[in-house]
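Feature request disguised as a bug: please show the residue count (515) next to Chemotaxis protein CheW in the output. Example input:
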Amino acid sequence: MSNDNTFDETERNTEQAADGEQQFVSFLVNKERFTFPMLSVGEIIRVPTMVSVPLGPPQMIGLANLRGNVLPVYDLSAILLGTQTQTSDVTRVIVVESELGSVGFLVDRVLRVYSAPNDTVIDKSAMTDSIAYDYMLGIIKQSDQPVEQILDVSALAKAQAVTKQDGNAMQLSGMKRIDNDEVQEAEEDDSLQQLVCFSLEEQEFAFHLQDVEEIVRVPSEISQLPDSAPAVLGLVNLRGRIIPIVDLSNAIGMMHTDINEASRIVVTQNSEFGSVGFVVAKVSNVVSISDSELESVPSVCNDGAESGLLEAVYRSDGGKRLVSIINLSNIYGRALMSALSSIEDDIKQESQMSEGNDVTIDEDDCEQYVIFWINGQEYGVSIDDTQEITRVPEKLESVPSTPDYLKGIVNLRGTVLPVIDLRSRLGMPSSETSERQRIVVLTKDKQRTGFIVDGVAEVKTVVRQTIENAPSLSDMQSEFLNRLIKLNDEKRIIQIIEPNVLLNDNAVAAAQQQY
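Example output, currently without the count:
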């Protein structure tokens, strides 16, 4: 998400207070319940493809390319509870917006989006001193629900920023666990179904969670399609994928949805059409129900043009709420088959236009990088700093009293060349010697050093516009890996290694002086 989607918190909070309730996103982290204020939540997405960051903080999972923006993703369990999250099909990343930009937090499961009356929201300042968090705003305490802890998005985001503590060591704000006997977690029942509930014309509907890829805000620009079906709003570029956007309300025979701040796009997956985004008025919550709680659709609803668009209904809150579960297969097959088939060429054309935007780039606007592999990820160094690439010799002369990452020296055409294991230098475990390994020789002020990499991929020409500053995650990472190449069309993030920092090594200089 870009900062264009942020909004005035003060104004929003005032509006909520006037309505007498506040909206939250509830989720599980290691079987404990937490919430984010909905106003701070930009998106809820599946776990994206990420690149890990060497020398980054331990709670960081990696960097993701989110629609052309670099999104840092952190393990919320590691931050709050000191344990690592075990990912599964229901694991999600909640993208939040703060004054520092967009940040993703990995959670075990999103439970629901719901509104809580103001009198059930207890501010931290009104709580006892024994219940305290650096990252907690307060709790939500409702008589018929478990207590949920409200997290401070701003404090969480700021805590991930680089802070020096005694030299290069990094430290996060300390936390205390909430010891609350009132919070009792029941084991999740694998037989339960999960539904994503949303509103259309003040009526409630749902998709099965397994059919939902992600939930995103409605972008400011949707590419209009001439002569398209009324339900098809156009095309959007979602992280390099061109997908059609459909007004779900219109597709099932209701009125057009008025798009506003509460509107969302629910992206679903179909075997024939791929990903399709459905615009809904508001996403309300995610519920877990058993099969016994589902009721068949009355036969009158399966007549005529509406045949089979609903597969079941679910009653909640003692029958006060009626949620209709939409049959996605029939929506595609009966309401959208011709409309989506007709825009297939438009999707291809839009994709080709996105890929062809840079065809007139001048050579002066480009740089060349040697791209190589370390621990399954791509890194790059400028070709101007690279002297040569050579095989790893069978034997390296060891140098006593040097760091573990300095593997030894080799005589390269009459010159003493120190050789460093780049994996070890970046804080990764060493690997076994293989035929694919190479030594990339970098040079600075006539000083040369060789770096062992897992393999060399290519020499790539990149447009300078694709190079940007990397998020600052630790002091050492900021020195070694302070820039990255972001290739949206190829869905790649290549971290650029700064050779000057690597070559300015006292241990290497001392080793050279011994020979």
